[in-house]
Specification:
By secondary structure, the protein is mainly α. It folds into two domains: 103 residues, Orthogonal Bundle (DNA polymerase, domain 1), CATH 1.10.150; 193 residues, Intergrase catalytic core (hpI Integrase, Chain A, Orthogonal Bundle). The chain is built from 14 helices and three strands.
């Protein structure tokens, strides 16, 4: 019996989503799986109905009744055609195509080895698009200091206004600059992900021991030891943080509406400070790269860095060793004698 799904997903896809949720995959990962696989299955339905790729209107394709029999008829050539469609018609880059293919591979692996509803895995031997590895973009120590100074400048403005009895401030005005300065400081010192910063709760901080418990990907916990700069800004922020009740009362960082601050709000605030500091082409994730790179360049062992960043694979962390090698090469190339014959 085919189950009816409120989102119009075929029951096998819903089962796969539930399977990954049970494995504690992050909400963002689950969201990406759902989107990528929904689009893939809609493409397969369009192909089976003789619709040309360039004429597909994904919003009008119903996949709710897709059965295991339909999925079992998908072969590797169909998947290659979808990947070609992404590259040619939608101009999707290799990194994003690789992510989408990984979702498809995971789905078919589940169907063949866990759910056992089909016998052959058409995605098993499909090669992942070659990705040209790019070194992570990061701020130099001078640029990092400039960003912190810009955030602190607004922080000081807020504090000075607080001391002016002739000026009455809203709760928002009282903690806005101080909050933002604290967020910038944590990003640049701890190298945490955006979702990790947004997810910090008050109980995650041991103020007497200067220890923060970070909830990373897959709800995995790791310990971050807070340095003096981090503790100073957190304590300063706690002095002006509004006391609230309700669902978000445990959140460290609050919005002006006294709710847990959102990813988008943090991104907007950081972007404004970066722009004010004259730094273009950076983001909150680039601040994570900055923290990691500066730590590595100042003697932090790559294994220790792996623990700080919460990387499962040491290979992910080793990209920062490549950054250092790149700088060494650039330094040699910049020698004024480099071009003499």
């Amino acid at each position: 019996m085919i189950k009816k799904d409120p989102e119009g997903l075929p029951y096998l896809l819903r089962d796969y989503i539930n399977y990954n949720t049970n494995l504690n995959k992050s909400p963002n990962t689950i969201k990406e799986y759902k989107y990528d696989l929904t689009r893939f299955l809609k493409f397969m339905v369009a192909l089976s109905n003789g619709i040309k790729p360039e004429s597909i209107d994904f919003s009008k394709i119903d996949i709710s009744n897709i059965s295991s029999d339909f999925i079992s008829r998908i072969d590797s050539s169909d998947i290659y055609e979808y990947m070609s469609f992404l590259a040619t018609n939608l101009e999707v880059g290799p990194a994003t195509r690789a992510r989408k293919l990984a979702a498809i591979k995971g789905f078919f692996k589940y169907l063949t080895t866990k759910a056992n509803v089909i016998h052959n895995n058409p995605a098993k031997d499909i090669e992942t698009p070659k990705i040209n590895k790019r070194l992570p973009k990061y701020l130099s120590i001078t640029e990092s200091q400039k960003l912190l100074e810009k955030a602190k400048e607004d922080n000081k403005n807020q504090l000075s206004r607080l001391k002016d009895p002739d000026k009455e401030l809203t709760e928002h005005q009282k903690y806005l600059g101080i909050r933002d300065h604290a967020m910038v400081t944590l990003f640049l010192n701890c190298g945490m992900r955006l979702s990790e910063l947004v997810g910090i709760n008050l109980e995650h901080i041991k103020f007497d021991e200067a220890i923060l418990t970070v909830i990373g990907k897959g709800n995995k916990e790791r310990t971050v030891y807070l340095n003096k700069a981090c503790m100073n800004v957190i304590n300063e922020y706690m002095n002006v943080r509004p006391n609230i009740t309700g669902t978000d009362s445990t959140a460290l960082f609050l919005s002006d509406r006294k709710k847990r601050i959102s990813n988008r709000m943090v991104q907007t605030a950081i972007s404004e400070y970066l722009e004010a500091a004259g730094l273009k082409g950076y983001s909150t994730h680039k601040l994570r790269h900055t923290a990691a790179t500066l730590m590595y360049q100042n003697g932090v062992d790559v294994r220790a860095l792996q623990e700080i960043l919460g990387h499962e694979n040491i290979g992910t962390t080793e990209i920062y060793t490549h950054v250092d090698n790149y700088q060494i090469r650039q330094a040699m190339e910049n020698n004024p004698l480099a071009n003499l014959k």
